[in-house]
Design goal:
Layout (H helix, E strand, L loop, with lengths): L5 H6 L5 E4 L5 E4 L3 H10 L8 H17 L5 H13 L6 E8 L2 H8 L3 H17 L4 E6 L2 E6 L2 H17 L10 E8 L2 E3 L2 E3 L1 H12 L5 E4 H6 L6 E8 L7 E6 L15 E2 L2
Helix pairs in contact: 6-7
Amino acid sequence: MPALSARERARLPDSAFAYIDSTGKRRLPIHDASHVRNALARFGQVHFEDEAARDRARSRLLRAAKKHGIMPIGFISSQLRQRQAKLPTGDVTFLLTDIEGSTELLGALGDEYAGLLDDIRRLVRAALRGPGGHEVSARGDDVFAVFEEAAPALEAAFAIQRGMRDASWPGGRDVRLRIGLHRGRPQLNEGGYVGISVHAAARICFAAHGGQTIMSAAVRSALPEPAESTSLGSFRFRGLPEPIPIFQVEAPDLPSDFPPLRSAVPAS
């Protein structure tokens, strides 16, 4: 592949590069098939400013590969292995977020919804990075993250809720996330985390209301210092063998008045 001259490089638009750093330096040209293949080969050699920048560059590169009919199977496998190598094992704390009323928002916003989703994911990812969280996946309206310890997960949950409250959303709408926290000891394989604790974390999240953060007793007992919380009782969740004690996490500057949990049955 012939190297780009400085003049040729200058003529390319920003969209022709997979990565542009905070200083404006453009890296990994992806304007044609040969440069896409070169970018796939060199991706692991590039120093990215943070994981969010790496994710954006990876997404741009994969879109370019698709556009040019390139199947980057080896690249995808390598990226998955690198990502999984960073995920914690043993006892971990899961954090899940989900957008309240996403179907109604999609209907009201139409094409603007994709931008809203991107803004929410950026906000959540920024809140996760500070306390050392790892994003496991972002599918549809939810983000699934993991922490080695419980306290940083709770710190991230508060940061997310405050960020959502303080942000300006399209049309002045009140866009809110429900957040669920659970702790367990799942298995980690090539497909991600596997185990009953993963399913429990999802069930707990989806039982909450927008703006509400709830946690299982397993998270509460793993906190080094007691968090301000209210016991909501023990609940049975679909598909889970045992009831789970649930607590609503509270902070003075965040809402604390919510209806009963949505999709959980109180244990008798």
